[in-house]
Amino acid sequence: MFVYLSKKIAIPNNVKLNCIAWNKEEGYIAVAGTDGLLKVLKLDQAAGNGQSKGGLAAVSNLSMNQTLDGHKESVRVVTWNDAQQKLTSSDTDGVIMVWMLYKGSWYEEMTNDRKKSTVASMSWTSDGSRICIVYEDGAIIVGSVDGNRIFGKELKGTHLTGVQWSPDNRLILFALANGECHLYDNQGNFAMKLHIQCVSISGGSSSRGHRIASICWFSGRVPQSRKRPVLAICYEIGRVQIMRNENDDAPTIFDTGMRNVDAKWNHDGTVLAICGTALDTVTPPSQRDSNQVCFYSPLGRIFRTLKVPGTDITSLSWEGKSLRIAMAVDSFIYFANIRPDYIWCYFEKTVVFLNSGGSASRDSPMNVITFWNTVSNQSFLKEVEPTLCLASSSEHCVLGVECVSSNIKEIALSTLENRSNPADDRVYQLLLCNSIGTTVDSKYTDIRPCFVGINSSYVAIASQEEILIWHYHTPKSASTLHNVKARKEKRFHIDDTPTGVEMAKDLMLSSSDGHSTQRGISDPISALALSEKLLLVARESGAINEYSIANVALRNRHLMNSKVYKMAINCNSTRAAIIDHMGVMTLLDLDDNRETQLNFSRVERKDVWAVSWAKDNPLLLALMEKTRMYIFRGNDPEEPVSCSGYICTFEDLEITSVLLDDIISVGELQNSSHLIQLRVKSLRDTDDLLEHVGLEDAKQFIEDNPHPRLWRLLAESALKKLELETAENAFVRCAHYPGIKLVKRLRTIHSNELQRAEISAFYGEFEEAEKLYLDADRRDLAIELRMTLCDWFRVVQLYRMGGSGVSDQQMEIAWREIGHHFANLRSWESAREYYEKSHFLEGYMEALYHLEQFDDLEKCVDRLPEKSPLLPKLAEMLASVGMCSEAVQAHLRFGDQKAAVATCVNLRQWGEAVELAQRFQLPQVQALIAKHAAQLLQEGRLKEAIEMQRNAGRHLDAARLLSQMAEREQEKRAPLLRIKKLYVLAALLAEEHLKAVATPEIDYASGRNTLLDSIALEDAAAIERLWHCSEAYHFMLLAQRQLRFGIIHSAVITATRLRDYEDVLPPEHIYSLLALASCADRAFGTCSKAFMKLEQLGHLPEVTLQKYEELAAGIFAKYDPEDAAGERVDCYSCGVPVPDSSPSCPECNARFPACISSGKPITQPTNNIWICTTCHHCAAPTEISRHRTCPLCHSLIVSMTVEI
Hints:
Elements: E1 2-10, E2 17-22, E3 28-33, E4 38-45, E5 60-67, E6 75-81, E7 86-91, E8 95-102, E9 105-113, E10 119-124, E11 130-135, E12 139-144, E13 149-154, E14 160-165, E15 171-176, E16 181-185, E17 190-193, E18 212-217, E19 231-235, E20 239-243, E21 252-255, E22 258-265, E23 272-278, E24 291-296, E25 302-307, E26 313-318, E27 324-329, E28 332-339, E29 344-347, E30 350-359, E31 367-373, E32 378-384, E33 387-392, E34 397-403, H1 406-415, E35 427-433, E36 439-445, E37 451-454, E38 458-462, E39 466-471, H2 475-480, E40 490-493, H3 503-510, E41 525-530, E42 534-539, E43 543-548, E44 553-559, E45 564-569, E46 575-580, E47 585-589, E48 604-605, E49 608-613, E50 620-625, E51 628-633, E52 636-637, E53 641-642, E54 646-651, E55 654-658, H4 660-665, E56 675-679, H5 681-692, H6 695-704, H7 708-720, H8 724-733, H9 737-746, H10 752-762, H11 766-775, H12 779-788, H13 792-801, H14 808-824, H15 828-838, H16 841-851, H17 854-863, H18 870-880, H19 884-894, H20 897-906, H21 910-919, H22 924-938, H23 942-951, H24 955-971, ...
Antiparallel strand pairs: 1-28, 2-3, 3-4, 4-5, 6-7, 7-8, 8-9, 10-11, 11-12, 12-13, 14-15, 15-16, 16-17, 18-19, 19-20, 20-21, 22-23, 23-24, 24-25, 26-27, 27-28, 29-30, 30-31, 31-32, 33-34, 34-35, 35-36, 37-38, 38-39, 39-40, 41-42, 42-43, 43-44, 45-46, 46-47, 47-48, 49-50, 50-51, 51-52, 51-53, ...
């Protein structure tokens, strides 16, 4: 930061000032002094007549100068209530007055007169609701903003000197005359005594040497991630202690070297200003300039020292945004301007800066960097780690950040090898960004980037003692460089002397003296500057090392008389501008050719805080001196211009500066008004000569002060006057090839009006050029101009102005281009309208697609001719929204059958894919379906594979997959009904396969068995197996249902039938059910056989078998194992009587089919039975008449016709 005195206001009658306070919200300044003086002032910026020059550069006038009458004695304390807009003052008599603003003036609102003691200090809470007043005799009063006393307290025998509220308003800190600080809560209860470490305080000491000059507790918001000190305690002897909180045992301690008087934090708590008198005992007080203000960081690092004239400085106060500071000295108010060291840079018409406050959120350590394009006024935000520095070259900028995120830090530590200090785990990153904030290259390092510089190929950073030169690569450089060796960083200590022969040898020699890599430094680095050829590194002693960049060799050492603050090197690396810590700017010659050197020893400027060399002239230098900008040509300065902007760039005799104060500190939204364009004197003079004198005088002046910009101005002026010779000569002098071509073309045009039109178009005055063309009756040239500019709306207007003579093709081209314009703007409704007018089907289709008007899009298939190249694109659009049949139609219209099939496959329309493949004889679709099914099975997507096979007409494969699903459900012990349904569904799909293979000769309805014999044996077995499994679960469910509803004998018959399905159902389940049903039916013979089967199951556990044996023993101990006599029927084959429950004849082994409704055997299957037309299973007519659907396959019973 840089500070300089800017204004001085004298108080009438030489009244000595005691204190000053600056209202943070509205800018009112309250000053108080002896004889009851209390004034309220306000500085307002005068409205400028011309361009804005920034807040600090604008003339400030006193818009208010009101004296407040009421105090009789010397006023010692004034304090603002910023939240409530009230002023509180107190004098030596103990009179306290509260002032309020009413209709633009300040009036007394309330008064309190204790008359017992003098007020030592007053402090408002941060929200302005309460005030704490302390008296010298130890009295404490806490009151509300409306004047009510909250509580009062007397500290007997205690001399109080100051008071401050904690930031959260929970605690009150009191300063005692003996140097102690006591903390009380907001109800007046003692909390603790502050631990003072900067001075030694004895218990009964009341020495003035330990008197506290000021206590200042920053009440603003401090991010939790930063934890910087906020409580400053300043002693008169010069000792200062800054604590993070009231319990901080490791505070920042330093000595100011002066008798401290007052201290204040700036608006964000990053700078502590301490005013006082220098402790100089040698110089007499009348001769020395002893008043000064020192600016410190919260960690005690001094930023700047400001000398203030006068005898006795008594108080200071910051402006609301900390861009100015006011000081009360004797009977004067001094104002100083603050030039903060913003983290910012400028390149490619883009201002890059760290946002005010820096953090993305209060507790986040991340910073937000803004990339503001000054041409388009667009801003791009980039969130990065805590940012330490920023610099830019012509095309890129580099950010130096500290890695604090644990994951990023871990990655960084893993990439760094041979770190200089392994004990220190702090890691930093360099981010190379383009103008929209995109990172194009990066590098991790353990060198803290305190200083940074960048040119077109290298980034140089420096800590306090080490320097790193990094050769970065960008996509542009990578594409132009071939066979480039792996890039190597160049790192060395400031005390090393690199020779440039070989970096490794230099480092080896420097470290071979027995010193460790981590070396101490007594003369740290203070500044760095980098050009295309040179690197300058300055040290606090004033020494400047000059290195060549290409081979990193120490070329020279220069010595300055003071500590260097900033440096800048000109465009050809021959001179450097040096600013020391006192703001004195001098020039340093870097050129080895002594014959070409100028004498720069007499160029010295004071109070300089910024410099910038011209990019195209090594002799032009712009510098900021207080609020004035000077431009030097060699040794000679031009007339200064008032400005407070930060210099962005100096190019083409024009300086661009930006009002960073308004953007960053004040927080205004950046716009074009924050940019200031200033022109050098030669450019202004050339404009005046061309405007008021003539071309010859202007030409002579430009020859004396040559610059390409001036020659271009002369050429433009000559062209406007149609003096082609002068214009051509000027274009040649500035090497402007397009201008030379223009002059050559103008010589072929014989009409002055057309020449002027060409000139206007060349300089961007298109409206004037068009007017000239039309006046010359050359509408064709006007149309051609607008076509070149892509202003197709104007082209259409010009076409219509001409009436007839415009072809439909020309209008269609114009409509089409307008459609392109709206399409680029994503205004698809307007684009569709113009594309339709122009009959441009490709754009029309795209507009319909984006408008989701798919019905109209479908109609485009018929509008396009066959084999049109737009048909595949249209098919792709239709397929992307699932319109398969329409997409297929488009592909077929184009003649691409393979693409049509591929579309069906992609949209899972397998049936249509197979149909197309068969129609166009594309066998590869079957292989594609099989491959896709295998992939689905591999991914475990069995259901999707089944659906795909079914849709593709591969019913038997789908049935096999359904059988697998049923087996999985069986393993999961799923409900039996679910397993039955899966098997039935699989069997029905298998029947669909049979229908598909049927031929006219072998009909499915009448010749199903013949079809089964004609297909592959494996397929036939699979189909029969599916129905077998379906029957097993069907009869198991039927038997359980019959048993539950008390149809016991039928349950026994059905359970007996289950013995044929031991290959499907668990035998234990079958015989357990049979034993249960037969026992209930008192058919103990059948029950005995079932138990015998259960006891023979070897896979059952021994305990289960034992239980079965015990259960059987218990049953058959009471009942004989015999069945009751049942009904008998004759076998349809051999005529032998058999039991009605027997599934087959014991004599001839003839099988009796089961009724799927009752489970009973149909002993006469040759006549009088019903057969399902879907599953081909039979049932007794008396049983099936109770059903509307088949009990097994659940197909609708259409006819109850009995099959004979």
